[in-house]
Amino acid sequence: MSSESIVHLVHFLGMLLLITSLGIIASPLLSACIRFYAMHSFLLSLITLAIAYNHHLWHLGISALLTFLLKVIAIPQIFFAISRKIGVRKEVESYINIPSSLFLAVILIFVSFYVTAGAKTGSALSSWEFLPIAIATVFLGMLVMTTRKKAITQVLGLLLMENGLFLMGITMTFGMPLLVELGILFDVLVGIIMMGIFIFKIRSAFEGIDVDDMTVLKG
Amino acid sequence: MTKFLLLFFQWLLLVALAPSVSWFIKRMKAASQNRRGPTLVQVYADLIKLFPKEMVVSQTASWIFHVMPFILLASTFVVAALVPVLWTDSFLGFTGDIIVFVYLLGLGRFFLALAALDTGTTFGGMGSSREMALSSLGELALLLAFFSLGVYAHAFSFAGIMTHFAAHGPMEVLFFTNLAFGAILIVTLAETARIPVDNPATHLELTMIHEAMILEYSGKYLALIEWSHQIKQLVFLSLLANLFLPWGIFNVPTTTALGWSVLVYLVKIFFLAFVVGWIEIHSAKLRLFRVPDLFAIAFVLAILSLLGQLMFRG
Question: What pTM, to 2 d.p., does this model score?
Answer without folding.
Answer: 0.84
